[in-house]
From TrEMBL:
It comes from Neocucurbitaria cava. This is Kinesin motor domain-containing protein. ATP binds at residues 90-97. Belongs to the TRAFAC class myosin-kinesin ATPase superfamily. Kinesin family. GO terms for biological process: microtubule-based movement; mitotic spindle organization; spindle elongation. GO terms for molecular function: ATP binding; microtubule binding; microtubule motor activity.
Length: 744
């Protein structure tokens, strides 16, 4: 089924005049509920465009009306195991935050507090109805995406690391690493947590000048229902998207331009994803911004409601048109309505499933159209006939416009439009508030009413799209000016990366996809000249492709190159200090090396050409498998290689190794404690270690995440992580001696 898109026109603000109102709601013949938004052409007031939605809420619509009609019925589905996404879209100042968060008074409360209130009511009911046999737990995550960086809103701004929290694909699911999950048992508790978190957001806003309106805020409510035999997990995600902004019409300084650019870029990528899904393309570019990656519209196999917020006045004319175009495209995304399977508490095997996709451990798929998703729960939507053109989910009508009359009913001269709508709707069951089925989502997609509508691309909408592109270009430029852009890649290399990424997408369910992810990351590190990280990634990829000769050669070449660099650096270090001496930073030279053969080994000259060979160019699947299975001579020796050598050279010496009272493999309590902290992957705990700043902690967590399930078992390995080194490990341990009171 499609994303349900409803439009909401906010009331006039104090400084806005009634005569400037250009956005109106209209009903379709025979309906009582408005479902059409009408707006004049920016070029010619006599022409107007109409956009049809599932519902349109007019200026006087209350928070309660919106919630009761659109959100309330989804709560039941949420408890039936469906995931729910509600997001507010629209340009700045159109009422997104008002819709989602709302005001403090009971009547003004927005979608989020009302949803939580409904959830807690239902929790109580379930517990009562089952006589306590089913327990329901609610937990919250709340974060914002600001300038394409993720920040935990449950953490005060001063605890943030500049680079934000990393996001990772964990078994096919996009997760934000290190996010606080707050159990929350009552509505009162929720209100406290939510208000406090919003304070975090607005405090930053004050500091950064309009920060809050420039980030996407995402609240995830996790509901876990535990009965004697099953655990059922479902999630509601409430997203207050940042408002797009036309940079040509603002006096943005550079900083604001960068923020604005990041917003526009992420919204632009969102629009591209929507476009790609509409066209049923295999590759959805959702990885290109964090917001789309986390939001993952097409991955969300549940219910999705998009509330398009609109300002009624002329001042927002182009922005409103652009939003209307976007929302109309979104309406066409088909989302598989698949409930999360319960998990047997014994964890032996999943319950007989109603869908083929696993429950709480559900592996999210890359965005893809419904046609490629096995959906066991929902009757197949009406299939487009072969050869049919892609259906546009919205209609743009151009007709002579009457003097603006803000009426809910179509003016007489629009009868032609009405007729057209009426004809299209004739075959469909009528849909009104009163006759709406209890289930929020009418299975007969409202877009189907206008299946035959002429896809129209008017001059104005083209202009709006061009304006969007201009914004995008400005965004890119601003980001480059701010020095945040990655080094440019050659077209050929970029193509290879794209190919590799494409293969990863295509093989998401293949066991090798994780290995391919590592290869991709390795290649990216490699191209940025980060040899040590590249090698680490190749090593992580290696177990997925045992015995692959090419991979082995690649790692060997990198090791030689790193060793050569290291020797070079040592030379510089032992040479008299000269002001012109430059040596590679030692952290970049750190790498897990295989057992040092002989110091006398001739230096390898790094051959850039050979490095950019086409070993990772797409191979036919079978070729690929074969090539990685053909050579079993290579053994993954990273661990063994890291055993400290007895050498006169100054290598990190850790006390565990020197402590004669310890058996081999045994660790002191301090070391175990340190490793426990590291393996917790908790950025705050790691950051608190002596000598570890925010950046280093971030690096460590990134490395650990990239190691996936693998843990750091000894200090040697720890010292090999990017940006760590022996000295840092010593510092960490010394810090623990002081703060934890260990004797040794
Ligand atoms: N339905 C409504 N009823 C009353 N006031 C509203 C309504 N919608 C929006 N407003 C008011 O309009 C103003 C802008 O709304 P809001 O801050 O929610 O916009 P926004 O889209 O979230 O903006 P931004 O993207 O900048 O955060 C606020 O003063 C808000 O109180």
């Amino acid at each position: 089924m499609s994303v349900r898109v409803v439009a909401r026109i906010r009331p006039l603000l104090k400084h806005e005049l009634d005569k400037d109102t250009i956005v109106t709601a209209e009903t379709i013949d025979g309906e009582t509920i408005p479902a059409v938004v009408r707006i004049p052409s920016p070029k010619n007031d006599a022409e107007s465009f109409s956009f049809q939605f599932s519902s349109v809420y007019e200026q006087d619509a209350t928070q309660q009306q919106l919630f009761d009609a659109e959100i309330s019925p989804t709560v039941k589905q949420l408890f039936n195991g469906f995931d729910l996404s509600i997001f507010a879209h629209g340009c700045t100042g159109t009422g997104k935050t008002h819709t989602m968060r709302g005001g403090k008074s009971l009547a003004d409360r927005g979608v989020i507090p009302r949803l939580l209130s409904a959830i807690y009511r239902r929790c109580k009911k379930i517990e009562k109805d089952t006589g306590g046999a089913t327990q329901v737990e609610v937990a919250l995550e709340y974060f914002e995406i600001y300038c394409d960086r993720v920040y935990d809103l449950f953490e005060p701004p001063e605890k943030r690391t500049p680079s934000g929290l990393p996001i990772r694909d964990n078994h096919g699911k996009t997760v934000v690493v290190g996010l606080t999950e707050k159990p929350c048992t009552t509505l009162k508790e929720f209100e406290q947590l939510y208000d406090q978190a919003n304070l975090n957001r607005s405090t930053s806003a004050t500091k950064l000048n309009a920060h809050s309106s420039r980030s996407h805020a995402i609240l995830c409510v996790k509901i876990t229902q535990t009965s004697e035999s099953t655990v059922h997990v479902s999630r509601a995600s409430c997203i207050d998207l940042a408002g797009s902004e036309d940079n040509r019409r603002t006096d943005n300084n550079k900083e604001r331009l960068v923020e604005s650019s990041a917003i526009n870029k992420s919204l632009f990528v969102l629009a591209q994803c929507v476009e790609a899904m509409n066209k049923k393309q295999n590759r959805i570019p959702y990885r290109e911004s964090k917001m789309t990656r986390i939001l993952s519209l097409g991955q969300n196999k549940g219910l999705t409601v998009m509330i398009l917020n609109l300002a009624p006045t002329r001042a927002y004319h182009l922005d409103t048109l652009s939003s209307l175009n976007f929302a109309s495209r979104t309406k066409k995304i088909e989302v598989a309505e698949v409930e999360n399977d319960p998990i047997l508490r014994t964890m032996v095997k999943p319950l007989a499933a109603t869908s083929s996709i696993g429950g709480a451990t559900i592996a999210r798929q890359p965005l893809r159209p419904l046609t490629s998703i096995l959906n066991a729960n929902v009757p197949e939507p009406e299939k487009a006939k072969k050869g049919d053109k892609p259906v546009k989910a919205f209609s743009v009508y151009s007709d002579t416009r009457k003097p603006a009359a803000r009426s809910s009913n179509l003016p007489l001269q629009n009868q032609s439009v009405r007729r057209a709508e009426g004809q299209k709707r004739a075959a469909e069951p009528s849909s009104t508030f009163a006759s709406r089925p209890a289930k929020t989502f009418r299975t007969a997609d409202s877009t189907s009413r206008i299946r035959n509508a002429e896809p129209a691309m008017t001059k104005a909408s083209i202009e709006a799209l061009i304006a969007q592109k201009v914004d995008e270009k400005l965004a890119e430029k601003a980001l480059q000016d701010a020095g945040t852009s990655a080094p440019a890649l050659s077209a050929e290399l970029q193509k290879r990366l794209d190919d590799l990424e494409h293969r990863i997408d295509a093989k998401e369910e293949d066991g090798k996809s994780q290995g391919l992810q590592f290869l991709l990351m390795a290649k990216q590190h490699h191209m940025r000249g980060e040899d040590a990280s590249a090698l680490r990634m190749y090593q992580l990829a290696q177990p997925f492709f045992p015995g692959n000769a090419k991979l082995q050669a690649k790692m060997k070449s990198l090791e030689d190159r790193i060793r050569a660099k290291k020797e070079e650096a040592n030379k510089h270090m032992s040479a008299p200090v000269s002001s012109t001496t430059t040596s590679a930073p030692i952290s970049s030279l750190m790498a897990p090396l295989k057992a040092d053969k002989k110091a006398a080994k001739p230096k390898m000259v790094y051959n850039d050409e050979s490095d950019h060979d086409d070993e990772f160019a797409p191979l036919p699947a079978s070729d690929h498998e074969d090539s990685y299975a053909s050579d079993d001579s290579f053994k993954y020796k990273a661990k063994a290689a890291r055993k400290p050598k007895k050498t006169s050279k100054k290598l990190p010496i850790f006390r565990d190794d020197a402590d004669a009272s310890l058996n081999p493999g045994e660790q002191t309590p301090r070391t175990s404690h340190l490793l426990k902290i590291i393996n917790s992957r908790d950025i705050n705990q790691i950051k608190a270690l002596k000598g570890v700043g925010a950046k280093k902690a971030d690096n460590i967590v990134n490395c650990l995440v990239e190691m996936n399930e693998e843990e750091v078992h000894d200090l040697e390995t720890l010292s090999m992580l990017k940006g760590v080194g022996g000295k840092t490990v010593d510092n960490m341990r010394m810090g623990l001696t002081v703060s934890c009171g260990y004797d040794f």
